[in-house]
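User: Sequence in, structure out. Go.
Assistant: Echoing your sequence, followed by the C-alpha cells.
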Amino acid sequence: MELGVLERSPEAGDVGAIDDLVAGYVTRAERFTARAGAVRAAGDQLVSVSVGAWASALGERAARLAAGLDDAAGGCRQVAEVLAGYGAALRGLERRVMVARHEVGTARIRAVAARERYATAALAGGAASVPWLWSDVPAFPAVPAAAGELRVWQAAVQDAAAGLRAFRACCDEREDLDRATAARLGGVDVMTGYAPGTGVDAVVDVPLVRALASAAAGTLTAEQAREMALWFNGLAIKVSASHRNQRDVQMLSDFLDVHDDESAAVLAALFEALGGDRTAALVSGLAEHPDRPSLDGDPSPLLALRVRAALARGSWLWSPTQAEKFAEGLFDSGNLYGHAARAIDYLFADADGARMSAALTIAVADRVDAFEQEHGRLADFGQKLGFRLEMSEEPGSEQRLPLDPAASVFATLGTYPQEARDWLTGGSIDWSSDIQPFDRARIGYWFGERDWSIPKSDGFAGIGALWAGVQGSNGPLDARQVASINDAVFEQLAINPSLLRTEHISNRGSLRIAEAVGAQLHGLIEVGGNRGPAYSDRQWEKVPSLLTREGIGLIPIQGVVAV
C-alpha cells in the first residue's frame, strides 16, 4: 500500500484570509454603489441648471459613469460570491482531509499491532521466520490459533485503503475546485481588472491572499506590497505598450483609486517593478491628447494625472538607490529621443499637487545635468504633454509653453531647499568658514550659459523657482551656503544673454526671479563706481554685508548687479 500520496496538501490555503478578501470585495461593492449614487445625483443637478445639447450630454455622461460604477459594484459582489463559495468548499475539504489522514493513520496502527500478534503466534507454532509487511498478505502458512488476529489485520488494512481512497478523492476535488473557481472568476469583469491574467492563482496563492487581507486591514508589509504590485504589473505594462483599450485604462485607474487609499507601499512597489522606461511610455501614451477629456468620457488624460500623483506618493518611500534605478530607466537610451523627455517634463510639472520625492528629484536632476552638459538640451522641440490639463486659466498665464524637462525638474528641486543648495554647490561642504570654495560648474551652466528664454523654454520660471527655493536658511551655516550660491548666480546671470531682453522672460519667470531677489533685499549692497581715469568701466569690490534676515553676522561676498 503506497502512502506517499499523503505528502500532498489538498487542504492548503488560508481560509481566514479568503474570508477577509470576501469582506474587502463586499466593501468595494458598497463603495462603488455609493459613488454611482453620488454621480447620478450630481448629474441630475448639472442637467437641471443646463440647457440644450450641453444638458443632454452632461446627463448622458453621468448616466454612463454611474452605470459603469454599478457594473463595478456588481462585479465585486460576484467576486465575493465566488470566493465565499471557494472558502466554504475549502473548509469542507479541510475536514475531509483531516478525517482521511486520521483514518489511514489509526488503521495502520491497528494493522501493525495485529500483524505483530499474528507473527508471534506463527513463531510459537514452529514457523522459522515471518517476513511480512503490514499491508501485505502473509507469505507463511496460516496459523489457525490466531485466526482472529488475522481478521483484525484484514479489517484494519481495508480501513487504511478506504482512507487512502478518500484522501485521493480530496486531491482530485481540490484540483477540480481550483479549475472551477478560475473559470467563474474569469467570467467576472472586475476580477479581470484586479488580477489580469493570473486566474485562480490570485486566490489560492496564500502569500497574495494574505497580502490582500493585510491591505484591507492596514497592516501591509513591504514584501506583501511587492507581491501585490507584481500581481498588477502586467496590466500596467500592457497599457504602457499602447496595446490597450478604454477598458484597460479604466481598470488601471480603478486599481490606483482603490490602493491610493490603502498604502503608498503598493504604489512604491508598483512603479519600482514597472521601471522608469515603462512609466515614461505609460504617461506619454495617456497624456498625448492635448485637449481636456471630452464628453465621450475618454479616461486616458485623467489616468495620466492619477499615475503622476501615484508615482509622487510612492516615490516618498524609495531609498536613494531605488530612485537612482528608476531615474536610470527614465533616461533609457532607447526612449531618450522619443517620449522620455516629454514624460519627465510631465511627471515633474505639478510640484504643488504631485511632488516627487527629494530622492527621485535629485536623481533625475543629476541625469538632466550630466546629459545637457555633454550632449546639449534634452528636448529642442515639441509640445508639453497634456498642456491644457496644466493650464491655470488665469489672465496672463502662458499657454502652450515649449517642452523643457529641465525647467519642471528644477522647479520641483526648489521645493527642497537644503537638497537644492547641496545640489548646486556640488555636494556636502563644511560651511563653517566665511568663504568656502565650491564647484561652480552647475551654476555656471544653468544660470550663465543655458538659454531659458521664450520661446525656447519657460522664460526662467523653472530655474527661477530653484533659485527662489534655496533662499530659506535655518542658521549661520545655511546662510553662508545661500550667500555663496547667490554670489555665483548673480555673477552668471549678468553674462547670460538670454536674460537681457524682457520679452524673453515669462510672467512666472519674472515672479520667481523677483522672489529670489526679494528675499535678499535686506542684505544686498551695491558698491559699483569708477576707479579713476585708468578705469573707464565700473568695477566691483567685496564688501561685508548682512545677507539674510537671520542676523548671522558679516559675510564678505562679491557685489551684485543693480536691482
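User: And one key feature?
Assistant: The radius of gyration is 36 Å.
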